[in-house]
Amino acid sequence: MPFLTAFLFLGGSVSASAQTTVDLALVLAVDVSPSMEFDEQEMQRHGFIEAFRSTEVHNAVRKGAIGRIAVMYVEWADASLQEIVVPWTVIEHPADGFKFAASLAGHSMRRGRHTSISSAIDFGVRKLRESPVHASRQVIDISGDGVNNQGRMVTKARDEAIAQDITINGLPIMLKRPDPDGSGLESLDLYFRDCVIGGPGAFLIPVRKRSHFIEAIREKIVREVAGLPPFQSLTQPARNERSQCFHDPCSEEGSFC
């Protein structure tokens, strides 16, 4: 992508070759597959906008060892759709957070086909490796309302990311009743816990009510920025049984549903 070799936003523009040092490089990877209803997409987007406007996130950034982070916002759906909505942006001051939120608010939303969490993870790994910053921690933040149903096994993508010292956190969106085809929405928190998240300090925060979007997203980003352990009450899956990752509909490398 052109911006990766051109500019990194930091109040004004600085050369990507400057290797800005940050506490955290964070890829926000947001589901826009058909299972996400339009109002859910709007609430999800609004939650991220409000998070980067919030005093809580600004304070978390300020209290870091370096006092700045780099964030990229990506929307994803099927194996071929990963769109960078807001490119790598360094956030150091509250004004930077407001600028990031304004950029996000000014971008139109789109929809894709299928749900390829594995491709979203792979894309996030590539963008972190191409990032023009030097980060103490690297995190991919996956939000979505369904299981991987296209691309390679999600556990393979997850494990390869972890092997590169990348943490994957999750925001499973659980607003609907389970589908009769067994897509696993009822236990999506378990699926994310067992099959998606991983790495040092990995956690998930389920969203079970529309009114929880802003609070959950803000809390998740604060904890990612600060490197804090999650609240047990926010991250405990609804049940204790184990999810089965191998029921992934696309179990063969490179297969498509």
Automatic annotation (TrEMBL):
Q: Which SUPFAM superfamilies match?
A: vWA-like
Q: Which Gene3D superfamilies match?
A: von Willebrand factor, type A domain (3.40.50.410)
Signal peptide stretch: 1-18
Cross-referenced InterPro entries, in alphabetical order?
DUF1194, vWFA_dom_sf
- Asked if the keyword Signal belongs to this entry, the reply reads yes
Q: Which UniProt key words apply to this protein?
A: Signal
Q: Which domain of life is it from?
A: Bacteria
Q: What is this protein called?
A: VWFA domain-containing protein
Q: Which organism is it from?
A: Microvirga ossetica
